[in-house]
Amino acid sequence: MTARDRRLYGWCLAALVTNMGIVVTGAVVRLTGSGLGCSTWPHCTAGSFTPHAAMGIHSFVEFGNRLLTFVLIAVAIGALVRCYRIRVKAQLLALSWINLVSIALQAVIGGISVRVGLNPFVVALHLLLSVAIILVNVKMIWLAGSHSSEPVDGLTMGLVRATVAMMCAVMWLGTIVTGSGPNTGDSGSARTGFNIETVARLHSILVWITVALTIACLVIATTRQLAMMRRWSIILVAVEIYQAIIGYSQYFAHLNPWLVIWHMVGVSLTAAAIGALWCSVRPTPSPVLASAQTPVRGKPVGRDETSR
């Protein structure tokens, strides 16, 4: 990797770290009851973008989290500018734009969540978009760095995709559990109205299905000697074990807020790990496609005979 490439890689890595970080700081805002510390958006309070002492500590906690968005935007712009300077491939450039636009959209969704009194379904969308951005960041790192991916058959690729899809479902249902519990983000916030024990059990069932799929990925990667897939399957299993320990501790501790924060650390780690597992493999080109891409003697690649 050249020095010029290392700088782009650094920007992409910074994008991942900052987007993972804001997931955790967002949890701190909610769990300290500071979600409506700034009562409106884009202002913090009527007529002022910044909080003042009379508003109390919650306003500064919420405002501090809002300021972090500008850090994310600055990093996203840095990565995008670097992409243009070294003229990267179209896919990486497109992902850099998606990263920047998604962060701006994330700020808007955050503002909407404040204006609707921290409606749990809007707050859930806020988190899920962060997870999607983390997946984009992992792919950016993969393309900007020297990471490789292994060609796999349709069954293996389907298993990895199923694991990713199930993990996304687990995270979505996790937001429903949180939205049904006591950690509202503000004492006056609405709840989903669902029975928390019921949704927690459903969440647990999906978690164990996802764990089973991850173990299946590990078994296939080991038997077929897919080193990259095996490495990230092991890492993902380790993160899932961590999440299971924290998750069950939360349940028996009646959703202790500080345990929830550690669970959100696990969410960001899980999103990064599942993204890396997804990037570690690629579908093997079909024989028909491969033959179509093979040049014929005296004939340019991809040229149709009928076009003569």
UniProtKB/TrEMBL annotation:
Membrane topology of the entry: Multi-pass membrane protein
Transmembrane domains' residue ranges: 12-32, 67-85, 92-112, 118-138, 159-180, 200-221, 233-253, 259-279
Keyword Aminoacyl-tRNA synthetase: no
Keyword line: Cell membrane, Disulfide bond, Heme biosynthesis, Iron, Membrane, Metal-binding, Oxidoreductase, Transmembrane, Transmembrane helix
Pfam family, one: COX15-CtaA
Superkingdom of origin: Bacteria
InterPro entries reported in the protein's UniProt record: COX15/CtaA_fam, COX15/CtaA_HemeA_synthase
Any coiled-coil regions, as ranges: none
Pathway: Porphyrin-containing compound metabolism
Subcellular location, record wording: Membrane
Primary location recorded for the protein, binned into one broad class: membrane
Annotated protein name in UniProt: Cytochrome oxidase assembly protein
